[in-house]
Amino acid sequence: MSGRGKRPERRGEDAPPPASRRPGSASPFPDVVELLRALLRHEVDFIVVGGVAVVQHGFSRTTRDLDIVPEPSSANIDRLWNALGELEARPAELPGLRASEHAVGLSADSLARGGSWELETSHGLLHILQYLVGKVENPDDYARLHERADSIRYDFGTVRFVGYSDLIDLKYLAGREQDMTDIRALEEARRTAGPEG
Asked: How far apart are CA 56 and CA 44, in angstroms?
């Protein structure tokens, strides 16, 4: 499927949940299931993009964070803010910049103003992407991503993953070495799986 049409919802028994770390582990990788559970508990409307979406589309690899694009309404951003409270979210330290040196502190108001946030949480890194040049610049762009997203039902709730074509577009726009590797691997996985893959 090209990712342009609505894919039927799959049930959790057909698809294993995204990788999760063991509780109490010192793993540098996120506990994706616990991050997703918290977002769903707070009824946050979001689409998974990035490395976890790459895995969902057929290329198994590790990822250092969970990347999401939240639906931009103020009510949804309020729910996201509440979920971040439960997750004990705080700005991640970036190379050459301590969390306390960020130009804008994390607050309900700063989250509502948009932008991207790389956050440390009680379950690993969470990257919130509210603006992606050329792909997510306004609410209509989110609606298009949502329409083409793949919904997968797990025992803890239904999660939407960015559709295949949109994922490829996002990877090209990011243009990093890892993104190019992901594109090649996803295309190979799709060829190997055949027309229904």
From this structure: 20
